[in-house]
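seq:
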Amino acid sequence: MKHENEAVVRFPSLSCNEAFARSVTAAFAAQMDPTLDELGDVRTAVSEAVTNAIVHAYPDRIGTVLLRLRRLPGNVLEITVKDAGSGIADVAQARQPMFTTGGADRSGMGLTIMESFMNSLSLRSQPGRGTTVRMRKKLIGRGETACKP
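struct:
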């Protein structure tokens, strides 16, 4: 789909970069004049996606996480979080609430949370090759958008 604006950021899979990814996403979304509730939903979904990449994709090493933000026609925000880590063996199982491979300290609710806050979520993964999470949210916003093409 043709996009009206785009930003791409790559960063190491360090836990401190989860907050960075949330902030970058919020700054990019600001051009779409989101409500505070919409901004909170987007920040939460990004947090979950990036945390999954950090914790599950690279459990024993530092890798790279790619965050791509796109403004699509109709005031739709598309967020892609991609890693080249361990991948997911069974995507259908991973999408089940409460399923986790992260041990007792993980809730297994990351994908469920992402789905609940976004309008759509797609997940592609290959064991040993990485995972791509793509989410979209139509932002109703507060009025006139601040950045028109």
